[in-house]
Design goal:
single chain, mainly alpha, two-stranded parallel ribbon, 6 helices
Length: 141
């Protein structure tokens, strides 16, 4: 997506207000390969995935975690959840009459709806701090 990347970098370099705060993650197969074609990415984060889907998920998770300053689930848990979603979603779409090709070419909007539905159905509500404390209380023996 060279055009979209160029727009984002341009906003950061030449924009005003919130545009100057834009951040982007560029995912590349090999470390430093981008430098041969693009010299204006200083200040952008470059994630290297080496053609590994699991490494790509780890790069995205780590970048989002650092940008949001949260304690997100670890990369292994995110990868496992991704695999569970892909399997569950494939089965659900097959039950709805989708072919393998239909699933491969699923439109982004429909995929986002599937993700929302899956997350809502599988999300475990966080325990409140009182129940966390109660669950970890130790008693002397």
């Amino acid at each position: 997506m060279p055009l979209e990347l160029g727009i984002d970098v341009g906003c950061r370099l030449f924009g005003r207000g919130q545009n100057r705060l834009k951040r982007c993650l560029v995912l590349e197969e090999q470390r430093y390969r981008y430098q041969a074609a693009i010299s204006d990415l200083s200040g952008s984060d470059i994630g290297v995935h080496g053609r590994s889907p699991e490494a790509l998920v780890t790069e995205v998770r780590n970048w989002l975690n650092s940008q949001a300053h949260v304690q997100a689930p670890g990369p292994a848990r995110v990868w496992t959840a991704f695999l569970e979603f892909m399997s569950d979603n494939f089965d659900a779409l097959k039950e709805r009459g989708f072919s393998d090709l239909d699933i491969e070419n699923l439109q982004v909007g429909e995929l986002m709806n599937c993700i929302d539905k899956w997350v809502s159905a599988t999300r475990t509500p966080p325990r409140d701090s009182a129940s966390k404390k109660a669950g970890t209380k130790r008693t002397a023996s």
